[in-house]
Write a structure and sequence with these properties.
This protein is mainly α. The protein contains eight helices and four strands. The protein has a two-stranded parallel sheet. Strands 3-4 form a two-stranded parallel ribbon. Strand 1, helix 2 and strand 2 form a beta-alpha-beta unit.
Amino acid sequence: MSGGLDSATCLALARREGYSCFALSFDYGQRHKVELAAAARVAQALGAERHMVAKIGLDAFGGSALTSAIEVPKGRSAGDMGHGIPITYVPARNTIFLSFALAWAEVLECSDIFIGVNALDYSGYPDCRPEFIEAFERLANLATRAGVEGTTHVKIHTPLLHLTKAGIVQLGHELGLEFGLTFSCYDPGPGDRPCGQCDACLLRRKGFEEAGIADR
């Protein structure tokens, strides 16, 4: 759970479906570390059983505008965002995040992992594609003691995978999510204010505008 709109909506949905939720966030060397405070707010507000923050220094490798001194792109059009893999892609991030989630799930004897990936508005990210999720789910059931012994069968839930950003906003609204708890900006300014021009800010604004819902 990043503290952003997608993962918060994902948690709200899992709670509505009756799951006891253990929320996992990552301090991975990201420049927008303020998102971790948002994740804590969301986890508490939505009644997570526990919220864990795992520290993993992906900034040691760099290779992304989110983890190194590379400028975050600003003011890109929807067409630009939908073409190619953006420099805000963090190498292997979702593979690493899901691996940590899998380890914790096995300890908890939990068979359900929720992740708020989206293949429409974030089509440039290779680790948000359905093929990746399907492959990781197969791996999860091959690579764990629980899977080999048959005590659990891991399912990776991606309820937002085929929704537009407007659809995610509408779903969050229906779930009663307090949007003001969430934070989406890649490059916050003084006082941790959203920049308003990075891809995450622009996609969020577009989603709320198309949904006809105010972003508070």
